[in-house]
Every structure is written in structure tokens, then in C-alpha cells.
Specification:
It holds the Pfam family BCA_ABC_TP_C. Keywords: Amino-acid transport, ATP-binding, Nucleotide-binding, Transport. This is ATP-binding cassette domain-containing protein. The chain is of the alpha/beta class. The protein folds into 2 domains: 235 residues, Rossmann fold (3-Layer(aba) Sandwich); 163 residues, 3-Layer(aba) Sandwich (Rossmann fold). Helix content is 36%, strand content 25%. Strands 6-7-8-3-9-10 form a 6-stranded mixed sheet, sandwiched between helices. A 6-stranded mixed sheet has the order 16-17-18-13-19-20, sandwiched between helices. The model has no long low-confidence stretch (mean pLDDT 92).
Length: 489
């Protein structure tokens, strides 16, 4: 490994009005090195990446690439110097095919006339194969599975052979085997002598991949060293890693409602010719916490959208004995069946407070302010950011706002679709405690969809496994490991 740093970040600060998102941050990365950047939600990781890429301008400080200053350059010039960014969220051209998306990334704007060039075509195909998109090259992004969309972002980033690759949360929402495949691709970057800056909340996978870790908190450097050293650092443990999740499942016989509050019977959903749900039946008792686990594409979101009135289906779905089929999504929400969707669906141009007030618009004044207080205690960051525009929140802060907005509606049945996406471990602990408090003090029912069983199992009284559009297993969480884990996940 060369000892000369490729990237040097020296004393960089970024302010947004009164908020200091990144404060006097310094670090460097050598060629052929993978540096992991960790820290709680909102600690400035994405902001640091955006400043390196030239998407955001540092308020002060200096960034150099191979000795030449790049801070202050616009992002297309930074890209030309050899930096590529894989964004936290996918943003493909939806009307072009996968192959065309890669070609667009291959060609600077002035050379777009070379689009049909066989050499460009060959290069784009090679990149598609390399990241595992070979079988979907001719498809358009809206038809792709979640992991393939992430692969496409990776393909676009490497199209111009960057010497420095910035990767923001590549593992979020991926299954264990997909995380393995992505890690392998990132390892290849290292072998090729590229430098990599990697941000992700999947601590184990980051630790297994990186050469070195830097931890941030409130915009500042707090620790740096080997993964083992940084993870053992007391401050990192306190502000980022948090403690273990422990809860106790209650047996189904302890729920007194004979007819379960939510009944899903033989539900089928077709998207064109593709069967998204096949003969799905499940139930949730009043006060019961039920987890639906399954890989990406198994049908979890489709199931939740059917319950919430967002997707047409055949079969029956009943809430408190009454069929939901002919009700609008809004009417279903008024009955107390509230979904916090995977896609968050925040009002991006409205403030944090406005988003919460919209959630609580059906509550009386007194009840609404009590609820708001409770949520601000739960997620203190939302209290201090009430007037911030939602779309400028960090990834994890947006997730907290989406969960808080759903809770603002005082749901009787709360449907959480992949709530752990993008949340720091310490916030998972907060969310876990909040769910426990709801479980102990209210009769709320929770239906939780996750491919991350480490969160789904501790919070379930009962578990269903959804596999290829069907319910493949049902039972208490204690039996999951022995009976279902190996076959379905
Ligand atoms: N335009 C903006 N105006 C005000 N505050 C902003 C703006 N952009 C970002 N911030 C704030 O800066 C802080 C750092 O955000 P950043 O996206 O860098 O966090 P992060 O470490 O990537 O977090 P996460 O793990 O949740 O993605 C956050 O508190 C965020 O709300
Ligand atoms: Mg981020």
C-alpha cells in the first residue's frame, strides 16, 4: 500500500445557518485503502461526502486529491478529476433502460453523440455484467428489484473509472447475501488501487470490509483506528452503538380477543402477470406485535399496501370485524390502521413540525400537544429541528420523522415497513424502547415488516415468513432460528 494519501481533508467545516453540520474535520485516505465513516444519524457523514464531491461547498477548510485542491470546484469538475459518488438514494433515468443509464454515465455531455458507438456499448455491457446487472440490461429502472437499483448506482459511479469512490449507505435495505455481493465489489475497488470512503450503519459489514474506521459525532471527529479499536471506544459505544435489544414474546393464548382485530384471508395480488401475493392469510390480535420477515421482493410491501387500501386485491381483509375492501386509504387510516411506508412519503418542502401536524390533524388540541411532547422526548432531534425543511434532514432523521408522523395519528394498528432502514444502532435502541413502552401502556397492535431479523424477532409476539408471495412459516420468535431461518432467509 502506498503511503502517500490520495485524498486529504483538512479542517473542513460546513454551516447551514446556525447549524454546524461538519466541524473542523480532517482525515486522509491512501490509494488501495477503504476508510469506513460511521456516526449517529445527522453526524455529518453525507455532508462530508457531498463536500468532497463538490455537491456542497465547504464553509471553510481545504480538500485535495493527489495534492491538487478540489474544494470549491463544481461536482462535474471533481468527477473529471476522478471522484465518483454512490448516492444514499437511487436516482436513475426511469425512461431509459439499465444499459442506457450506464451509457449516459460513461459519456460526458459533449460526447453524447457517441451513444450508439459499439465501443461505448461494449463498455456499458461489461460494467453491467461486473455489478451483476447482466440479466436486466434491457429493463427500465422502475421494474427493477431494490438491490438491482443499488447496483445500477454503483455501475454509474464506476463508469468513469474514479480513483476515489464515495459510497453512501450501500447496504441499507439489502439482505445478508446481497450485502456479501456488494462487499465483494467494493473489495475489488481496493484491489484495483482505488481509494474508497464508505458510510453505512451495518456495523458488522463495515468492520469486515474496511482497513480503517473514522467515527463522527455532531459533525466532529471522535475516534479513528482499526474497526476493533473504534468499536471498543467508550464514546463510540455510548453515542453510536447503544446496547442490545431484549424483549419477551407473549404467547398467542394471552390475547383475549377471540376474533383477531386484523384478519387477512386468502389475499391475492397480481401485478400484470406477476403474482405478488398468493393465498396470504394472517391475523393480528388487539395489542399483539406481529413481524412479517422475508427477503426483498417477497411481497411485504404489497401486503401492507393491500391492508392500507393502496393496492387492489382479491380475498378479504377485515379490521375489527368490518371489511376494508371498499374503503379509501384515507378512510382506513381514520379507522386507526396507519402505515409508515418504506418510502417515507414525507412532504419534502414542508417543515418537520408541519409534517407532524398533518399526522395529528384528527386529534384534539390537548391530545395533539401531549402526543407531540411524547414524540419529542422519543426523538429529541425532531424537537430542535421543528422548523427545518424535511427534505434537508439526514437519511436517518427523515426515517425518524416518518415514524413519528405515523405515531402522531395515534394508530390502533401501526404498520411499519422496514423501519430500521438508515437508522444508527443507537436509534434502533430508542425505537425499540418506544415500541416496548407502547406495548406496556396501550393496546396498540403492530405489524412490522423487515428483512433484518435482528430487529424483527425481538419485537414480535408472533412471526410470519413471507417467501415468494406466500406465507411459508408461522410461529413464535423463539422457534424461528431452528425452524425457518435456514430455509427462508
Ligand atoms: N440544507 C440543510 N439545512 C439545514 N440543515 C441541514 C441541511 N442539510 C443537512 N443538514 C443537517 O446537517 C446534519 C448532517 O447531515 P448529514 O446528512 O451529513 O448526516 P449523516 O451523518 O449522513 O446522517 P444519516 O446517518 O442519518 O444519513 C443533519 O442534522 C442535517 O439535518
Ligand atoms: Mg447520510
Amino acid at each position: 500500500m502506498s503511503t502517500q494519501p490520495m485524498l486529504e481533508v483538512s479542517g473542513v467545516t460546513k454551516r447551514y445557518g446556525g447549524l454546524v453540520a461538519v466541524k473542523d474535520l480532517s482525515f486522509s485516505i491512501r490509494p488501495g485503502e477503504i476508510l469506513g465513516l460511521i456516526g449517529p444519524n445527522g453526524s455529518g457523514k453525507s455532508t462530508a461526502m457531498k463536500m468532497i464531491m463538490g455537491v456542497e461547498k465547504p464553509t471553510s477548510g481545504r480538500i485535495t486529491l493527489d495534492g491538487a485542491q478540489i474544494s470549491g470546484l463544481p461536482s462535474h469538475k471533481v468527477a473529471r478529476r476522478g471522484v465518483g459518488l454512490v448516492f444514499q438514494h437511487s436516482r436513475p433515468l426511469n425512461r431509459q433502460t439499465v444499459l442506457e443509464n450506464i451509457k449516459v454515465a460513461l459519456l460526458p455531455d459533449s460526447l453524447i453523440r457517441l451513444f450508439a458507438d459499439p465501443e461505448v456499448d461494449g463498455k456499458a455491457r461489461a460494467i453491467a455484467e461486473r455489478v451483476g446487472l447482466g440479466h436486466v440490461m434491457e429493463r427500465r429502472p422502475p421494474t427493477l428489484a431494490f438491490a438491482d437499483l443499488r447496483r445500477l448506482e454503483l455501475a454509474k459511479a464506476i463508469a468513469r473509472h474514479p480513483k476515489l469512490v464515495l459510497v453512501d449507505e450501500p447496504f441499507a435495505g439489502l439482505t445478508a447475501s446481497e450485502v456479501g455481493q456488494f462487499s465483494e465489489l467494493i473489495r475489488e475497488f481496493r484491489t484495483e488501487g482505488r481509494a474508497v470512503l464508505l458510510v453505512d450503519h451495518n456495523v458488522k459489514s463495515v468492520a469486515a470490509l474496511v482497513d480503517r474506521v473514522l467515527a463522527m459525532y455532531l459533525g466532529e471527529w471522535i475516534a479513528e483506528g482499526s474497526a476493533a479499536q473504534v468499536m471498543a471506544d467508550p464514546t463510540v459505544r455510548r453515542v453510536y452503538l447503544g446496547g442490545a435489544l431484549t424483549t419477551v414474546a407473549r404467547p398467542e393464548s394471552s390475547f383475549k380477543d377471540v376474533n383477531a382485530a386484523l384478519q387477512v384471508e386468502n389475499v391475492e395480488v397480481l401485478y400484470g402477470k406477476a403474482q405478488a401475493l398468493q393465498g396470504v392469510s394472517l391475523h393480528v390480535h388487539e395489542g399483539e406485535f406481529v413481524s412479517v420477515v422475508g427477503l426483498n421482493g417477497a411481497g411485504k410491501t404489497t401486503l401492507f399496501n393491500a391492508i392500507s387500501g393502496l393496492t387492489p386485491y382479491s380475498g378479504a381483509i377485515r379490521w375489527a370485524g368490518a371489511p376494508l375492501r371498499d374503503l379509501s386509504a384515507a378512510a382506513i387510516a381514520r379507522l386507526g390502521v396507519v402505515q409508515c411506508p418504506e418510502t417515507r412519503e414525507l412532504f419534502g418542502d414542508m417543515s418537520v413540525r408541519e409534517n407532524l401536524d398533518l399526522g395529528g390533524h384528527l386529534l384534539g388540541g390537548q391530545e395533539r400537544s401531549e402526543r407531540l411532547e411524547w414524540l419529542f422526548d422519543l426523538f429529541p432531534i425532531l424537537r430542535s429541528r421543528q422548523s427545518q425543511i424535511a427534505r434537508t434532514l439526514s437519511g436517518g432523521e427523515q426515517q425518524m420523522l416518518a415514524i413519528a408522523r405515523a405515531l402522531m395519528m395515534k394508530p390502533k394498528l401501526l404498520i411499519l415497513d422496514e423501519p430500521t432502514l438508515g437508522l444508527a444502532p443507537v436509534i434502533l435502541e430508542t425505537l425499540s424502547k418506544a415500541l416496548e413502552r407502547l406495548r406496556a401502556t396501550t393496546s396498540i397492535s403492530v405489524l412490522l415488516g423487515e428483512q433484518n431479523v435482528t430487529f424483527a424477532l425481538p419485537h414480535a409476539d408472533r412471526v410470519y415468513v413471507l417467501d415468494h408471495a406466500r406465507i411459508a412459516w408461522e410461529g413464535p420468535p423463539g422457534r424461528f432460528e431452528a425452524e425457518a431461518a435456514a430455509t427462508y432467509l
